[in-house]
Every structure is written in C-alpha cells, then in structure tokens.
Amino acid sequence: MEIAIDPCSFDNTLRFLESVEINWDLEAPVKVQVHTLKLKARFLKAFFTCTGKWYINNNGLKAILRQVEDVVLSADQELQPLSLNLIPDNLVCSISSALEKLDPIKPLIQEVYALVAQSTRSISSATDAVVGLIDTTLGYLKDLLKYKAQSIANLKKETEALEENLRYLGYLLRVTKKYLPRGHDDRLRDVLIHSEAAADSTACLMYLCLDNNKMDERMMNEVKLQLSYLQHRIEVILPDVRKVYLRAWKASSSLQKSDFSLNEILYLESLGKIKEILQVSVSVETCVMQRINALEDEFKILRDYLMDTSAQEYTDTHPKLKHLFLQIKHVMGRAACVIPSFIDNDVTEDTVRQLDLDARVLLEEFKVIKQEARDIYDSISPKSQRTKFPTTNELGFVDFVIQNVKQLLHSKDDFIALLWHQIEMVHDHILSMRGDFIEIAKHPREHQDLKDPWTRFKDVVYHIDYVVDSFLIKDQPLWYHKLGLFYAIEDIKIISREVSDIKDRTMNHVAALKFSSNVAGISSQANSGEFQVLSRSIYGAGNEANKPGDFVELFEDEAKKIMEQLTNGIMPLQILSVMGIPGIGKTTLVHSIFENPSVLLHFHVRARCCVTQVYQKRRLLLEVLQQVSKVSYKVLGMTDDRLALKLYQSLKGKRYLIFVDDLWDIWPWNDMKASFPDDNNGSRIVFTSRFHNITSQITTNSITIFLNPISDLSSWELLQVKLFKQESCPQELFGIGQQIAANCKGLPIAVDLIAGLLGTKDRKKESWKQIANGLNAHLLEDQNGQCMGMLELSYDNLPNHLKPCFLYFGTFCEDIEVPTSKLIRLWIAEGFVELQKDDKGSLEGAAQKYLNDLIARSLVIISKKGSRGGVKASRVHDLLRDFALAKAKEESFLLTTNGFEQLSSVGDSFYEPYRLSINSGSDYFPRSSLNPAHLAGITQIQLYFGLPLPACHVYQKHVAMGVNPCPRTRSMVYRGSILRKVSFSFDNFKLLRVLDIWAIDIDYCPNIFELVNLRFLSLNHYRRKSIPPEIGNLRNLETLMLGKNHKIDVPTTVWNLVKLKHLLIRGSYTLPPCSQEFLEKPFKLHSLQSLSTPDLAFGEDTEQILRGLCNLRKLSCRFLYSWDYTSNCIQFPNLDFLTQLESLKVAYRGKALHKVQSCKFSFPANVKKLTLSGFCLPWTEISSIGNLPNLQVLKLLDDAFEGTTWDMNEGEFLNLSFLKLERLQLLHWNAFEDHLPSLETVVLVNCKKLVEIPPCLGDIPTLQRVELRGCSHSCRCSLGVIKERQIEMGNEELAVTLG
C-alpha cells in the first residue's frame, strides 16, 4: 500500500528533539512536552513503517489511513522547521501546537488497529524483515515501559507479558532461519504471516498506550482487552513456530552441539511434551516421572546459574572452568540424542525403560557438573566465607537480609535485572525457611535437635548477604554470583529436608508422650509441685541478702525514705518501688528493712516472694499464702482463681507488708494485684526491680526510690571491712586499695567479688597491683561471681532485637556520652532496627523505643536530657561495657583492637571480624613493638586496609601500615585519640556498611567513594576543599557526617543519594543546584530528614531546592544577607512550606541588621523547637515567632535580638515549655502570668545586664526548673521571690540551679 509520508522523514526531527533535551536549559513543563513529542514521533515512524508493508485490499482501512496522513501532514507544518534544524521564534508554542494537532490521530489509529486485527494476509515479508520488525517493536515497547512507567501502570502487566512473548517469538524465528535447511522455507510461510501481523498490531496499539494518561475508563478497559487478545494471538502461533524450530534442530548437527543458550527452549519444551506423553500412559511408573521432573529442574539450573556468557571470558585463565564447559557440552550432546528419539517413537515398555536409563545417566552427569562447578567456586571464593558469623539476634539478621533482597527486587536499576530471577528465588527460599526457625531462634535451649540445621541456615543467609552485596559492587563476574546464589539455594533445600524429618520424628514422639500421659492420669500433678513449695525455705536471698547489718549505712538516706514510707501513718495502700542496676543491693537493702524490729511491730503480717524471670502465678500465690495463713491439703488442691481469693481473704482487714523481689515485667503484678485488698489501714507493698518502666505502669499510689552507686570512699571502707575485719589495712596497700575500690564503680556486689579475689592473694603491693590492672577482666572471667551471673541473666532475658543494640555500646570508649541521634543512626545502618507488621511509625521511632527499653532495664544510663525531656545522650557503666565486649567477642559480634599490634594482625587467622572497632591512637606508637623507640614524633600515618604490606613500614616520621584483607567485614569504627594526617585505602574492605572514623584527620582516601554498600559514613577533619563527585556512587548511603572547619564545595551528584536521610556537614557550604532533569521528576531526596548546616540566601533557587525536601524534620542552617531589590528590603529565606519541619536552628551570617526597618521570619507552623542566634533584630520582630502555634522550645542565643527591653504580648508563646536566653544584652524582661502559661523550664546564661526575672513566673503552675548561670546579683535575688510564690502554690519541688 502506498503512503504519502516517508517514515525516514521523522529522523531529523527526532535528532533535533534529542539535542534540545540534552543541550537546552528548558523549564520542567517544556521539557515534558519535548519528551512527549519525541516519543510520539518515534511511534509514528514505527506506525508508518508498518503501513508500508501491508498488502491488504480494504477500502475502509485505506480511507482511515489517509485521514491519519492528513493529521500528520497538518502537524508537519510545526515539525518542518525542527526537521531542518531551524529553531522557530517560539519553540514552546511550536511544540504545543504540534502536540495539539496530533491529538485527533488517536481514535483513527484505534480504528486502524481494529481493521488490521480482523484482516487476514496471504503474503508475508522475508524472515529477516519480520525479525527486524519484531526487534524494532520490542525497542519501542522498552521505551514505553521505561519512559511512561507511571502513566501505563494499569497496563504494565499486559504490556510486559506481550513483550516477553514477542521476544520469544523473535528468538525462535531468528534461530530457525539460520539452521533450517533449504527446501523447507515453505513451512515458514504461515508462521511469518501471523508473526508479522502480530508485530503490526503491536505497533498500532503502542500509540494508544502512549496516550494512556488521557484515556477514560472505557478506553482503558478496551486497550487491556486488545492487549490480551494480541497476547492470545501470539500464544496460538507459538506451537507452530516450535515445530518448525524442532525440524531445524533435528536437521542441523551444529545446532544440536551449539551452546545451551540456543537449545534451552527446545530442551524444556521437549521435556514438557515427554511429560504429557507419559501422563496419559498408565503403565509408566512414578519413579520415571520423578526423574523426568528432576531432569527438567537440572536443565533450568543450567539455564539460570551455570551457563553465563560472562564465564567464557575466563576459560583461558581458569583451566578448570574450561573443562567444566566441555563437560556441559558433552551432556547437552547426549541430551540431543535422547529427547527427539523418544518423541518420534511409540511409547512402549522398551522406550520408557530406555528413557528412564538415559535420564538416570544424565542426572548423574549433572551431579558431577554441579560438584565440579562448586569446587571451582570454592577455590575462587575468599577463605573467610567459611569463618564463623555473629550469633547475636540471628533471626533479626535473617529478616534484615530478606528486607534488603526485597528492596533489590523492587529496584529499577537495569544492572539488577542481570540477577533478578536468582535473587527472587533466594528471597522465596529464605522466606519459606524462616518460619521453621522462629521458635528455635527465640528458645534455642528447647530445640537442641534443630540447633545444627539452624546454625547452617544462618551461615547460608550470611553467605547470601555477602554474594548479593559483592554483586552490587561488581567485585566478580556475573557467573560467580550466580553460582554463589545457586549453592545457597541448594544448601537451603538440604536443610529444609532435614528440618522436615526432625519435625516428623518430634511430632511422633510428642504424640507418644501424650498417650502415656493420658494413661497415667493427672492426679500426680497436684501432689508434686505444691508439696515442693512447702518443702522450700520461706526465702533464700542468696549472697546479696547475707550482707552484714551495716549494709544499710551504705544507703542511709534511701533506707530512711523507705522506713518513713512504710511507717508514716498514711492509711491508703501504697506501693513502694526500689529500682537500680543489677548488683547495686536492692534486695539486700529491702531485706534488712523488712527484718527491722520497728517494721516487724508495725505490721500485722509480712510476706515476701521472688518473681524472677520465669513467672509462675500458682507458685507465688502459695509462697505468700503460706506466710500469712495456714495452708492445708485442701488449699493445695484449689485452682489458681480460688488461691487468689483465699489470699485476698487471708489479708482482708490486716495491715500487711508484702515484699515482691525481682519483678521483671508489669504483667505478674497485674495478674496478682486483685489479691491485695486496700482496707485503708496503712498496708504496703514493696517491689524491687531493675526496670524503671514498671513503676510508670502502676496506677495505684506509687513511690519510686532509686539506688545509685555508692561513693568510692564507701567502696573502700566496705572493702577494708571485708578483707581486714577489725584490723587496719597495711599502709603500703592503702593507695592501690583505693584504686581497686574506685574501679568497683560503686557496686557493692563488685566489692564482694574483688574482696574474694584479693583474699586468695598475698597482702603485697605487687599482687594487688596485678589485680588492679586487670580488675574488669578478672571479674568477667570469674564465671561463679554473682555480678557476672546477674549481667548474664539480664542479657539472656533481653528480647533478641535488643541484644545487638546493647552489645554495640562496646564500640564506644569508656565513660563516653553517646549522642542519641548518632547511636540511632548507627543501629539502623547496622540493620538492628525493624518495624513490626502493624507498626506505622518510622525506624527512628522504633530505635528510640529500643533505647528507652534498655534504659528501663538499667543496662544503659541517661547522661543528658534534651530540652523536651527526651534522652539526648547515654552511656553504659564500665562493668557493663566490659561485659558487652566479652559477650560480643563470644558471639563473634565485634572485634575490638587496642594498639597497632592487634590491628596489624586482624584477619591473619581463621577468624575475620564482621565488625571491627579500632581503639588505637598515635600515642600507641612510642609503646608499640611494631616501631622503634625514636618514633615519638611521627607526623603521618597511612593505613592500607587489605593490601599485602608488611605489618609496618617506617619512613622517617611517616608510618605506613598494612592491615590484612577482610572482605566480609561490614563495619569499621575508630574510637581512639585523634590521628593526624592519615591516609586510607580500602581495596579489600569493599563491603563496608558502616564507616565511622570521625576521630581521624583524613589526609587522603582515594577509594572511599567506591564503597557502594555504605549506609553510614562519618568523616571528621576532612582536609579536601571539595567533596568528590564520586559521592554519588554511594546509592545506599543513609547518613553522611562530614567535619570541615572551612568552606567546602558540595557536588551536584549528592542529589543522586536517593536513600539519604541525614546530610550533616560541619562548615560553610551551599546546597548545589539541581539539574533540570532532576527537578522535573518527583524529588528524589524525599527520604532526607535532617540537614545541617548549609548557607541559605533568599531567592527562587534556594526555595526551589528546599521545596523538594518535603519530609525534612530537622534543619540547622545559616541565613545570609540577602537584599531584595523588588521590595527594596532585606529578605530571609522562606521556609513556611516545610510542613514536616519540627526542629529549626538558624544563625545569621552577614551585615548587621540592627538598622534594618523590617525583617520578617517565615517559619513553618509545625516547628516545635527553634534556636536563633546572631540576628541583632529589634525585640518587636519576635512576634512572628511568638505566634507559632506548636512552638515548645525556644533558644535565643548570641544577640539573636537586640535591645534593652522585651515586652511580651498577650496570646503569644502559648505552648512554650522551655525557654533559654544566652548572651543577650537584655535589661528588662516584662511579662505577665498569662504570657507563658505552659512554661516548665527557664535557662538564663550570661545575661549579665538583666535586672530581674519577671515575677509572674512565680504564678505559672507548670514551672519545674529555673537555671541561672553568669547572671547579675539582682537577677538571682528575684529568683527567690519566684520560688516563694511557687511554694505558696504548693510547688515545693521547683528545681533551682545557680552558677
């Protein structure tokens, strides 16, 4: 059919449009139009290419095609200048006009498709032409799926299925044409006619999909129907294509002996045909079908794992690999003889028997091939793959890997597609096995029979994690990663079979036990446990309860408080909670008071019980009941509910004291509290627990007393009593003894342990000095020590998800306050934090709950609170840190090196660390055996991680160290003293997820931006003037902390970090501009939550970038001096569109503003915390801040406002709870009681001119704390008036701090 439009006429237009896209700086809407016009031009070229090959005598179709030509020629008036590379006066108008003129073409193409689909053909193009048409169509389909992914989301499934079948069809035709003998071309004719029609129909339909975003629901459903029909047409002709292919295969020996990639379809299709033949034959044994199914699986394994073209490049350097491929070709040749012969012959016993024999031989040969491939893989794999892996929260790590793999499956990276199928299989296999191991992961001691399979499964998952991350850094050829995943799946299958067998045996055993139990009856059950309760001593407090009577003196103030609360005459029932870390002496103290004669006389009855971590309600009820009344055999036979009622009746009307020791959770109390009546007669209940959160959950009158560690002096006095009784300590031991006592960190239990250790040594200074040097190690090595037992017990009873979080404190130095924000980011980067199924919060919120839980369990200490009452920083007790380090080493969780000798030996043994913490500093060199004595003045250190250097090279004052390769190490942190001028190389540490080297002055680190798996990167003292553009390679980075004291340039590639949550750069920098392509898409940095500290200026560019940070929650920045010539005034950047922003810190940098008439702030209404400094604005401008409805914390620092008087206005700062004024020139602060109705804390620092604090603060009922530092005498005096007023209002707890 003749057409008036030459398809090649679109080429020049397409080239010009592509040039415009690349080289022109277009606005986002215009660029979208250019891109749309380019796609339409490409599809129209394909459409007219098809029409030129149609041989259909259909007048209706010709008429419609002429209408299509008319529409295109009309639009061509706009397209002609583009095709001649002439730029119209108004490019935007020309493109818009061309698109409008093309709009009517869509329904016409729809009619063309309907007519073409109903027509038949008698003549086809040549095979090459049809294959070329299919390839071209596939190219356009790929563009459609790539560039219009969002608009065709509703058609994606149908479009992808169509693409797959077209690709399959083209492959079969291409191979058939190549190998089909002459004289058989007529057999291709029908196939080619239908194939060409399918390709033509696809080309027609693509244009409809291109305008999918303009389709109504009716048209959408119609296109879906047409896509499905087209899919069906291709599937109908595929069997005929396969038959022609099979003829070519039988006739060509070269095709039979060709690579597996040419024959995979034939083998799998033929095996499917064999299975169909055998299924209808009743005489075929089941084992034969099983072998055919197994053979089919083996062919798929060859296809998916062993046969990869990338492996061919390595056959010259790997002789074993070359031999492997020869083996595979040999097996394929045997298969080429077996498969066709059975299909061509009748099904008889002899042919089936021969097929079975051939299948067995093939399966054996496949087995040999797989073993040979595994040997090759193991020989190439790093030795560390066979090392032990961390055993901490193993199930949590499995979930972490599942989540990572799932994210990869949803990735749009084309590179992932190379291994997508294998990754999907790995994901499914891990997920299926996870359910089998949930119980053993939670209760390993109860499932000893599954311990070995669980350990192997965990190791396999660690290996999968290694292979996947190695694939992402392109560390090995593709076939290597395929093999790694294949053998992981094979191992999981073996483990799965073992687990199934064990479970079957266990179920049979349990059934037998149940049968025996039913036969024996349950009468003996009541007679065993209950009599054991009676036979026990009433209470055994162990070592802690057997302290000397003067133990109360160690906690004299706390003891007085407890005594007062027990006997103060207050009638309602009160609950007293005594809290403290393990080993502090809670039980001992309460036990001493419990036995006090005054307490004994005050209460009618007393009872005590120990809950422990294994709560048994019946045991506790009987334990208390037998201390307050007589317990008969009849009582022993009661149900739990009757026992609870019996206890209630026994206590009713009596003034009782119940001591509940070692409460681990709130639910035992909730379960038993109904048994304790409140008769308004002064009864008391005392708890001891290490968990602070239990107190907050008790609704009854509750008072909490915390036991803090005793002083060093008290520890030393207690130690002397333990060791010398009434004797005096020898003078030579006095100093070292005080040091040892101080090392006990105020724990009486630690004093007991060290006293027992010193009692076995000579009373000589040298002996005591040895103990002092290794005190913590001795305590931990003493497995029988109660302190170790308590710590071990606390750790064992931690939920699994908290264990790695606690052990991670071992990476921090002793007595160091750990900022909560950094700790949480590290936990998340390490994969410790996960959201539960129904949890709609964030990972950061979940991590905060983790930390609060550890604090509540007395394992972590709050060292600093934030202005809103949260935990700003925390730490662990030294003893707990040492325990964490020992446990981390035991569980292969963390390796800590102290000194360069240990660092140089890392990885040289069978054990390679998963996490590495370096506590070495430059001060170690003078004492290090690696270096000569004269190296006290070294000026430069180079650490080469993974390079084959000797332990240490010395060049004058320059030291170069080689650290052994550790390819599996995932975390590296440096916590030592600051190192200056250090160069790093990470050639064999490429899988790092966490790199925290904040304490190192980085001189040069060339390949740090090749660590593409990094999630957390912390660099301080960065000496370069700019961040390299390669930072954009770190596509998994979530936290970037960079220290720089001077100006630094940030590249535009930082916008490629689509997972970045925290961009924290210390120093002066501006946000890099965004490219036009970046801005036209939905903003990529939607994950960014915190940003500091960029310089921001008023202007459209700044606002355009910030508008993209739609989820920003915390911003610390500097406002620059910005003169707006339009309004002829100073303007600050507009931030009111950052609706998620909660914390904002702004410093001003520029010319003085005190003479400026008006400078308005424009902050988001959602801001809860605001810090301002350096603006020197008049106090009248503060109203814009006072009107922020959600503001809770306000800090005004360093002349944020200038002037001597601040007159507060009514209706402002209604929700403000924290106010800090620091280094202001304020003289008078005028306010009334209704100005700050929610104020809780006031902090004044170096406000030396302030005359007084507003007296109205004394009338604010919410006030809790006032802190004055560096303020005038009159200001301090005014605080006394405020305190008096607060006392008059009943607030005697007002905290006042003066300094």
Could you explain the architecture of this structure?
It is built from 46 helices and 35 strands. The protein folds into eight domains: 1-112; 120-251, I/LWEQ domain, CATH 1.20.1410; 257-380, no CATH class; 394-502; 531-706, Rossmann fold (3-Layer(aba) Sandwich); 712-787, Helicase, Ruva Protein, domain 3 (Orthogonal Bundle), CATH 1.10.8; 798-893, Winged helix-like DNA-binding domain superfamily/Winged helix DNA-binding domain (Arc Repressor Mutant, subunit A), CATH 1.10.10; 894-1016, no CATH class. Helix 11 (260-279) packs antiparallel against helix 12. Strands 9-10-14-16-18-19-20-21-22-25-26-28-31-33-34-35 form a 16-stranded parallel sheet. It has a five-stranded parallel sheet with strand order 2-3-4-1-5. Strands 12-13-11-15-17 form a five-stranded mixed sheet, with no helix packed on it. The protein is α/β, with parallel strands linked by helices. One of its GO terms (cellular component) is cytoplasm. GO terms for molecular function: ADP binding; ATP binding. Belongs to the disease resistance NB-LRR family.
